[in-house]
Amino acid sequence: MRITFLIHNVYGIGGTIRTTLNLAAALAGDHEVTIVSMLRHRARPRFAIDPRVTVVPLVDIRADAADAADPLLHEPARVFPAAEKRYGQYSRLTDQRAEEYLRTCDADVVIGTRPGVNVYLARFGPSRALRIAQEHLTHDSHSENLRAHLARHYRDLDAVVTTTEADAAVYQGGMRLPGVRVLAIPNSVPDPGLPPADGTLNVIAAAGRLVPAKRFDLLIEAFAEVAVKYPDWTLRVYGAGTDQQRLKRLIDQQGLGGQATLMGAVFPIEAEFAKASVVASASDAESFGMTLVEAMRCGVPVVATDCPLGPAEIIHDGVDGRLVPMDDRQALAAALCDLIADGPLRRRMGRAARANAARFDPAHIARAYEELFGDLAATRRARVRQRRTARWRGRAGLVALRR
Length: 403
What we know:
Number of strands: 13
Mean pLDDT: 95
Distance between the termini: 50 Å
Largest sheet: 7 strands, parallel
Number of domains: 2
Strand order of the largest sheet: 3-2-1-4-5-6-7
Helix content: 40-55%
Order of helices and strands: EHEEHEHEHEHEEHEHEHEHEHEHHHH
Strand content: 15-25%
Radius of gyration: 23 Å
CATH architecture of the largest domain: 3-Layer(aba) Sandwich
Low-confidence stretches: none
CATH topology of the largest domain: Rossmann fold
Shape: globular
CATH superfamily of the largest domain: Glycogen Phosphorylase B
């Protein structure tokens, strides 16, 4: 089977890129896999790509690339939805290249990985192929304008796949998509191939983009309470982003210099998680929670806020980690202190975390996708009839209203 992934920019850094590469590698053992990158901004991808996977860049935005001289690169996109957060990075040239590629694509399955790219898939994807939209963001994180735009185009797809059951339920209730399967398949995270953490180092780690929604400020404030009781413990925060300077000031204001450190972006992160005894997340929102699973695969228990939508589907509270209420500094600090104070509990949770996180192994997730491909192929005719019936009834209802 020929499987093609459409991705924003495989040459960058991010959770969608990591999980796409993980899944592509897992599928490449039995299938012909291609990753089509809408954009290319550097010579080589930052993440390692399985040599069995073919990478096809569509628009090269490097200053010295031939595409830089194409006037269409400097004209705003007309197909890529203006309400999409990445709209400013798209152009008439990306519209054109996406259409040209998809019109001639011979893949059996084409999978888009972000909303605007999924619109390309719906508009131009080959009708003979199974067309699947992955949603690595969440329904409610999209503006109303974008949701309305997506609803019109997602009706022409075979499936919409979210990363959590909770988000799939929101899509099922919020978008009328007759003939389209809406379901959840989690992101894949491979075994890091490292010895599991032994839970003896006095380190709390955290990782992610340094942006307000990740609430590293709340984590730092909670750690200030932890540090009073356990001054020999340290907090290491890995990542980069717009909040970096504000967080540095907060560390100084809390008197945590030397105990809390912004470590910068580190890839891969697993080796750093393996040096910690607890991993923490204070996020206000997660579409999935890749870092939570990455930590668990290293044998580290996670303390995370019970935010929408991912953590509660990853962490078994009290078994392999802890879930605490959102925006509750004291609850976060108390949960961290509980694990710090009880070494046997910490190590027991770490072992459970490593065992339970195996369900996110790329091989398991690849099988879930292969089962989906088979189901979609078997039900294609019935789903087409369902879609046509819904459209016929919709048109008939409009005619009746006009009368």
